[in-house]
Amino acid sequence: MRLLGRNTNWGAFAAIVALLFVVLYHFLAPMPGQSGPGQQKTVAEFDEERRKKLEANEAAQDTVAQMTWQTSRDEITPSAMAWVSRQGQANFVDIKAFRPQRTIEADGLDQLNYLVTAEGPFPNVMRFIDAFESEGSLLAIKVVQLSSMNGTDDTVRATIGLVAYQEAAPSGS
Fold first, then answer.
1. Which contacts (CB < 8 Å, 24+ apart) does range 102-107 have?
2. Overall average pLDDT of the 34-49 stretch
3. Euclidean distance between CA atoms 97 and 115, whole angstroms
4. What domain range includes position 83?
5. Is residue 86 part of a domain?
6. Helix ranges (DSSP H) in 29-114
7. Predicted structure pTM score
8. Count of domains in the chain?
9. Residues whose CB is less than 8 angstroms from the CB of residue 75 and which lie 6 or more positions away in sequence, other chains included
10. Distant-in-sequence, close-in-space partners of 155: CB < 8 Å, separation ≥ 6
11. With contact defined as beta carbons under 8 Å apart, do 60 and 109 qualify?
């Protein structure tokens, strides 16, 4: 009898091949729950992993604390306005307006928005804008719009959207 002749039962042949693959898979693939290389951790390994994650969390909280206002909300706006005024004077830029905008309260972080209008020579205004990127600034730039005051000199008007971040007070139930 020939293996692949006319009388070959292809259904039985396919079943035997499938059964062979199932048996091979059973012996070659690791079973869940059985210890294999790298499948189980000891308690000490879990403790070490937990310790590392707690340290990373503390480092992230320290970073957030350095970039957020650590004062009451009532003190942020006057402090921010004073900082903007000092930077304007230092860079010879006229601050025409400082307007608080709507506060956005998000999960764990409040965003106090401000709109500043400043005028001056283009290089001075750019230095003024760069001051917000300095390490001591707790105000972040959200948007900047520059427009020329006139076509005869380099005087520009900058409209700058700023954000002051503050950790949200925990809500008591």
1. 103/73, 105/168, 106/168, 107/168
2. 74
3. 8
4. 73-167
5. yes
6. 43-67, 73-90
7. 0.65
8. 1
9. none
10. 119, 120, 121, 122, 148, 149
11. no
